[in-house]
Amino acid sequence: MSSLFILGSLITPGIGLIFWTTVVFLLLLALLGKYAWKPILNAIKTREQNITNALASAESALNDMRELQSNNEKILAKAREERDALLKEARDAKESILAEAKTKATKETERILTSAREQINSEKNAAISDLKNQVAALSIEIAEKILRSDLSSDEKQKALVSNLMKDVNLN
Amino acid sequence: MTSKINTSAKNSFLLSLLFIFFLFLSNFTFANDGAEPEQEHNAVVSQGHDATAHEEDPNKPVDIAAVAFEHILDSHSWHLWGDHEEAVSIPLPVIIYSSVNGIKCFSSARFNHGHSPYEGYSLVDDEIVSANPDEKVYDFSITKNVAQLMLTALILFLLFTSIARAYKSTGVTSAPKGKQSFFEPLITFVRDDIAKTNIGRNSDKYVPYLLTVFFLILSNNVLGLIPIGANLTGNIAFTFVLSFITLIVTNVNANKHYWHHIFAPPAPKALYPILVPLEIVGIFTKPFALMIRLFANITAGHIIVISLVGLIFVFKTLWISPVAVGFALFIDVLECLVALLQAYIFTLLTALFIGSASADHNEDGVHNSEDEKATVKH
To answer: Closest by alpha carbon to B41, among A7, A12, A6?
Structure first.
């Protein structure tokens, strides 16, 4: 076995191995492609997509939370404002009610006072007229009695007339 | 990327140099044996099954070249250990197609290691020859290399289908574990760093091919490092088939820029008679280099290891063994790297060839209107 021969067999491809390599390789490629590479590559790809999606959704969740937080703050501020407005309104209402009540009370008082005064006046007038009537009746009665007693004699009539004349002069 | 290729090219160049060097060295040692052993060898072949002719002569120098090539070349039986009569080997099936007798199948044990002919066929230098000089014999035997090829194919199939099942059973929501987590980075490496980087947009289509090539070469490189393993990736027939498939895949998927570049290169028309044949040759040189690179790297590594161990027998002293074993160990560790590296380089260059043939841009970097359109599409 010369070394040239060995070298020759080393670099001469044998037909048997070429045949079997082709058959086995193509078979292996087809089988692995169908039963191994496809599911493995798909699984890896799906997982990568899952990871990307999960990261993206985490990011968006964070953003959502931030937004929610700022919204909460806004709502809180709004509520505070509303509360302040309500309080102010209530205070205003109280004041207006009070003022109204005051004016009403004043008016009522005045009305009552006026009517009382009127009543008093009318009562007074009535009393006065009553008194006047009674005084008039009394005086008539007295005058009648006096007249009856004092006109029984001439002297007495003269004295009376002079008395009356004194009074008239005084007037 | 280019620097990576440069280093790998440098590495393979270095190993090729070593290969040639050791080839000469083994030639030299063989030449020292002179003409006498060759005659003796011929005598053994002609005497055939005479076992007494094989008795060891302790003074006869060990033929390192023969031992080295026995390890590198294919065989019809799987030799495990032992020599001559004590040899333990697994006989493998012989399948031959003869121009006279058609297809014939029998065990290689019938040849009794080349000592006895069977049904008119005999094993000479591990080649099946017929007694009839007019009969042509085509050897389709399940040789050691074919057996290992089938074994690795079976292992790869079982391994990766079980990994695929793991993805199916645990779903994509859980983290990978066990062999799944060992192979997933390799698979994503091939997919992202080899395929996507070099091919670009349509890389997904080629990933199964690249993965199969990568793992088949890797597993056979590693098995070849084991002493009883077959040197399949260091066999030119194997590398020829793989690079031939790469040639087909590259040219079938080539776009019009690729063909335009070959048949109408951007050069003065007067140069076409020189350039066009060169470009056509260029179609074949790339896969050819791929074939030679893997074959030479793996074979060179094996020859170096065997030659270093063979130093002990050449110098016939035990004192040389620490040096020989030390160097052999160093080369073996280097070979582990080369096993991975060559699988990577073969896959990478395949991806690169496919990428350059189907890329949107011209290799010369000159933009034309179609390039512009392609970039806009991106």
So the answer is: A6
Residue B364 structure tokens: 């010369």
Q: Which of B149, B154, B261, B245 is nearest to B206 (CA)?
A: B245
- Give the nearest partner residue to A3 out of B26, B142, B164, using CB atoms: B26
Distance between CA atoms of residues B251 and B350, nearest Å: 12
**Whole domain around residue A127: which residue ranges?**
14-170
Q: Which residue has the tokens 């030390």?
A: B326
Please say whether the beta carbons of B198 and B354 come within 8 A.
yes
- Looking at the structure of chain A, the number of domains it has is 1
Q: What is the pLDDT of residues B49-99, one digit of tens each?
A: 333 334 445 566 777 777 777 788 888 888 888 777 777 888 888 888 888
Best mutation target, A3, A4, A50, to test chain B (most B CBs within 10 A)? A3
Beta-carbon contacts of residue B4 (< 8 Å; ≥ 6 apart): B348
Nearest chain A residue to B30, by CA: A3
Identify whether A6 is part of a domain: no
Considering the domain boundaries, does residue A5 fall inside one?
no
Q: Collapsing DSSP states into helix, strand and coil, what is residue A13?
A: coil
Confidence band, pLDDT 50/70/90 cuts, at residue B208: very high
pTM of the model: 0.70
Residues 6+ apart with CB under 8 A from B193: none
Q: How far apart are CA B54 and CA A144, in angstroms?
A: 201
Tokens of A86: 């309500």
Q: How far apart are CA A102 and CA A97, in angstroms?
A: 8
